[in-house]
Amino acid sequence: MTASPADALLRLLDIMARLRAPDGCPWDREQDFASIAPYTIEEAYEVADAITRQDMPALKDELGDLLFQVVYHAQMAQEDGAFDFAAVAEAISDKMIRRHPHVFGEAAARDAAAQTAAWEIQKQAEREARRETGTLAGIPPALPALTRANKIARRAARVGFDWPDAEAVLAKLDEEIAELRAEFPAASKARLQDELGDMLFVVVNLARKLDLDPETCLHVANAKFERRFNAVEALLGERGQSPADAGLEAMEAAWQDVKRRER
């Protein structure tokens, strides 16, 4: 018989407590928030990867790993006397009810666009209650750089600091590319980093204007390159060559062959 959600969660909480007990697992006992945080981030990415691959068995497994991370942090917080898992669950439940008055309260029904606008207003009020002032307050520094740049740009755009359209962003991108090109060949590494950073930030804004997620765009590009390069290696292997032995000209020819086959 399948366990109820409550029973399954209690079992997981008990397992976590046992792992952290004095006679529990030595590795688990010595961990802290900072040492576990990288695993938490990694598990979130693995959830996203399973979703991209539409692999439901893997998604179930990865969601379990991510849930374990939440339980892990809650257990450590409980040991420190800060909060426990129940407090985490109660806090998010209260927040969701507070942010959906059109569902749980008496506010008028909203379409998706109206809900998005109301959600942002509510989040701004919560940031102000936490005394986080400023348009860009509360954007986590630990976010992946492309994601954080996207959030920063969206916040700035909400108060009117934005390009009018994608064409204007493309013009700005041309300007940034010219500035980067002008730094060659004598620029310092710090100067090149600064100019390349400007260019990447503009690219993120271009994705935003095209209603695309920059992280997803780069993820797709990575997967495409990986697929094509693996095919190049396989093609060269059929000829008894490795990429290092074949040389750039042969690899480029194989690359173009792979692209033609994909088309």
UniProtKB/TrEMBL annotation:
E.C. number, please?
A: 3.6.1.9
Pfam families registered for this protein in UniProt: MazG
Entry coiled-coil feature ranges: 163-190
CDD domains reported in the protein's UniProt record: NTP-PPase_MazG_Cterm, NTP-PPase_MazG_Nterm
One GO molecular-function entry: nucleoside triphosphate diphosphatase activity
Q: What gene is it encoded by?
A: mazG
Leading EC class: hydrolase
Name of the protein: Nucleoside triphosphate pyrophosphohydrolase
Query: What keywords appear on the UniProt entry?
Result: Coiled coil, Hydrolase
> Among its keywords, does the record have Hydrolase?
yes
**NCBIfam families, per the entry:** mazG, PRK09562.1
| InterPro entries (UniProt xref) | MazG-like_dom (IPR004518), NTP-PPase_MazG-like_C (IPR048011), NTP-PPase_MazG-like_N (IPR048015), NTP_PyrPHydrolase_MazG (IPR011551)
Recorded superkingdom: Bacteria
